[in-house]
Amino acid sequence: MRKFLFTSTPHQGQFSRFVHRHSLSLTLAAVLGTSFLQAESPEEENTIGRRLESSPQASTFIQLLKDTDNSKNLLFDPNQTLTVFVPTNAAFEKLDDETKKALFAPGNKHWRERVLAYHAVHGARVDRYILGKIGLVENGVGQYLRVGEGENDSLTIDDVAINETDFICSNGVVHFIDDVLDPVEPDLFETLEADGRFGIFSQLLKRSGLTKLLQNRHKNYTVFAPTDEAFATLPKGTIDRLMAPENLDLLNEVILAHIVDGIQTVSKVPGLSPLGTEGIDVRNQYRQELTFQKRGDLLTIDGVEMTETDRVARNGIYHVISRPISAKRQSLITTLEDEGNYGIFLDLLSQAGLLDLLGQFGDQTTVFAPVDEAFTSDENKELLEKLREDDSKEILRGLLFRHLIDGRIPLTNAIAFQRFDTNLKARVDVLREGDKRWVQGVEIVETDLLARNGIAHGIRGLIPATMELPDSDQDTVSYLSFVEETLIKGSELVDRLEIEKATDYYAARGYEFLARYGDTLNSRNEINASKFLSELKGRNQAYEFALTAWRQRNGFRNLQRELEKVRRTEFDRRMMLPLQNAQAMATPVAP
Predict the structure, then answer these.
(1) Is 235 inside any structural domain?
(2) Residue 13 φ then ψ, to 5°
(3) Inter-residue contact 44 to 141 (CB < 8 Å)
């Protein structure tokens, strides 16, 4: 039996205000008043509240609602969209007498409202199909409920069995559960300290003075928490050095490297983009990227294995990791030296007088660094000899500048198409297809080598020196050709029932269209393509691929219609031009 802890806390008033701000108001009259029993429409008659009133197994839940002020919009408003996990009467009977007495006590109304709001999800109809695809769902008090698998293909919510799903109502859906959910009260620091596996991390948090960060109940955080066993992987004496008074700054950097603002989940969550989502990079409190990768069952963050994920506390979540994350304090030079396969590139940078660009901490730089084999290959061996000559500095600097871009550009979870300008102001395109990535057709073999002053990516060859011709495809015909080709190929994928591939294809084409044409189309024709292509979700964000693919397709279709209007206008203008010229020639010129 699930143990429900009733706790009287000084935060009850705060929770009441929080719930009130989310407008969960229901008067007692709305529940019981005879003047409201006759619904004005089928929608009102079939709201969650009205249908539960006629459900024998939900009478205790409805009885609790009678003495609250904050549930009208929650259950009886047909304009709301809700998912409610309703404890059955039998679930309430499992509570001990003291808890039941406290839950129904008139003086505990604020706590009762919090308990009820804890069982509801706002703004989403999460049916059983979607529940089976997600790991967490946000409830009415801004916390997260864990979705899990039970016995015989059943589901659980916060480890409580869901015994009946998809009780469909006009304003949402109800799932009946076997126990009353117990609101999570401990904050992240209290949760980690009480767990027992994070003694060293808790001790370092206290020493750093950063416990208040994880005790802040007004914000959500994600913590990548190393266990005591994880710290045992560090060299002997490391913990003592971190605890020394003179190393407080270093200790703070280590702690901040493990903390991220907001909720960063591994599993899918309605309204959130999970770790690894294309185009979304996660930065820790130390302001460095944390690279998430999934390879089969192996999950890593910054190369460190994640052994347990999506654990919930009151003000966020935490993931358990097998080794501490290091704050990257070294320069790009040191980072590439430590990798050991970029010696020729570094030597050439030094010869060209450009090595200092990778050693300065005032600027951020992205480096596409050719591996040594790129220079020693048969294709480039003669070029390398030429570059090493004393009088080759102009050629050498030109080649090297093609591999440098201002700013930090992480690529592990890159979108399918991106366009950048190098330090030569030459355009480079970065493409991604699955696990493969290329820059100007050169394969990227290693991504996101992080340094304090930038990011390096290893590439198998040299970025070619070809100067691209001026864009000849920046006209309405080329825009339409691109969109029409996308619609045809996407439709073919859907016709073959390759729905997930269609979703990925539409997303990739959308990113490419925006990168190639978006700015020009907006400046020339005042068409904001991103408005039409707003559904660029890939498989990491989609729950129903067919629905996502159709939305993506419709975005391209609407953009096509808008472009066709422009083409017709341009055609009419061209047709009118000879007539205007003839009229101008026929008009006599005044003496």
Answers:
(1) yes
(2) -60, -40
(3) no
